[in-house]
Amino acid sequence: MIDKNSITLIIADDHPLLLKGLYEEFTRNNYNVLGQGKNGTEALQLILAHEPDIAFLDIDMPYLTGFEVIKTAKEKGVKTKFIVLSFHKEQEYISQAKALQINGYLLKEDSFFEIERCMENVLKGEYCFSRSFEADLLKSASDDIKNLQLLTPSESTILKMVSQNKSSHEIAEALFISIRTVEKHRSNIINKLKLDPNNNTLTSWALSNKAVIQKL
């Protein structure tokens, strides 16, 4: 059983009513909330200043997204564990969370019991995703991350350019290689990512997963 009052928290959400409700729920249950952020910049400042045990962040916030806050804080060596609270259930968001090695991902529809369960897990060094996520969805997101790690540096570079909606001709010109070489790399990427081998699949997948790809 965790000592609630000894756990330090930062919470951030740009919806005042949601932020207020979350704060009241934590304080009613004797958690130690050090600060509240109304946007990504405030959240990052609070996290850097206090280095709480756990930071609860919305994903969609002004100035900096929750993912951007987490990435910056990690780069600065902060040891805080991060749990995102979001309405987003799409695989691309789960993949981003896994790519950033975020400790927990909950949905705003989850109960406070689920929030506490997640906190206990992440404090033990485990990863926790909402029980609302289907197992196949979580596995697919994990597989995407593993498959991306199979790419060579050249393939990663080309995939990043594909995710910027650049054509094979534009990529060839930018990298001073032949279109045939680009197409060969595209074919290898498709095979490694286990995508359908047609002309539009890779571009569609790359555009949908741009945020994850840019972290390669």
From TrEMBL:
Pfam families: GerE, Response_reg. Keywords: DNA-binding, Phosphoprotein. Transmembrane segments: none annotated. This is Response regulator transcription factor. Gene3D superfamilies: 3.40.50.2300. Residues 8-123 form the Response regulatory domain. The modification 4-aspartylphosphate is found at residue 58.
